[in-house]
Amino acid sequence: MMLKAEAISASYGRVKVLKDIDMSVESGEIVCLVGANGAGKSTLLKVISGIVPAGSGKFLFEGQDITNKKPDFIVKAGLSHVPEGRQIFADLTVRQNLILGSYVHNLPKQEMAKLFDSVFELFPVLKSRLMQKAGTMSGGEQQMLAIGRGLMSQPKLLLLDEPSLGLAPLVVETILKVIQNLRSTGISILLVEQNVNAALQISDRAYVIETGAIVTEGKARELMENDEIKKSYLGM
Ligand SMILES: Nc1ncnc2c1ncn2[C@@H]1O[C@H](COP(=O)(O)OP(=O)(O)O)[C@@H](O)[C@H]1O
Ligand SMILES: [Mg+2]
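A: This is the predicted complex of the input protein with magnesium ion.
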């Protein structure tokens, strides 16, 4: 088991936004979180990565308790979060953004070079833009940079929050292919995606979350055939 959440709850002030969440990601899986705007998907990713505290419950990452550990500790353990809206540093260059992604490991130069190469293999465009200010790139390129930066911490599990948001259909396709390629390199993925149909196509399993609680879970294939899911999330 890569990640296991047991009875996780979380609140903003007095408002409870996650209620008793049980979920897991197995090694090598792509798992998708499906839910309407405001359901709590981003919050769940933030609680996993230590940005928002868990009020109760427990996260195990490869058997280690990571509940409410500092974000740095969690990144170092092998869990990387690519946040909604990318959150890259617009005034820094592509290179500087990527280096920031690797800071928890403090790697020697040679290792850094290898890491850079592995990111360029996935996103060749970043190599030709190394000295460009990140904020001057297209939305798709910025998303690739955000994922690239996430990979610079050498994660075993990557949390991706709406990676295709606001991107043109062709770019969305590229991003989804990249996610599949990542999985084939052995990285597990927890994916939040508004583009539910496409997300289910590439996922092994999915959880449906409504107002902070998981209401349905199962194999992605089966959920695609579920009448409720079709009506609510696939527009059929
Ligand atoms: N920083 C915050 N402070 C207070 N409420 C928040 C904050 N972030 C999110 N919320 C609220 O928590 C709920 C879940 O939000 P979020 O996790 O962002 O949902 P999703 O990602 O599924 O759209 C929403 O009602 C949202 O308004
Ligand atoms: Mg969100």
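The pocket of adenosine-5'-diphosphate (ligand 1) is lined by residues 12, 17, 35, 37-43 (CB under 6 Å). The two ends are 34 Å apart (CA to CA).
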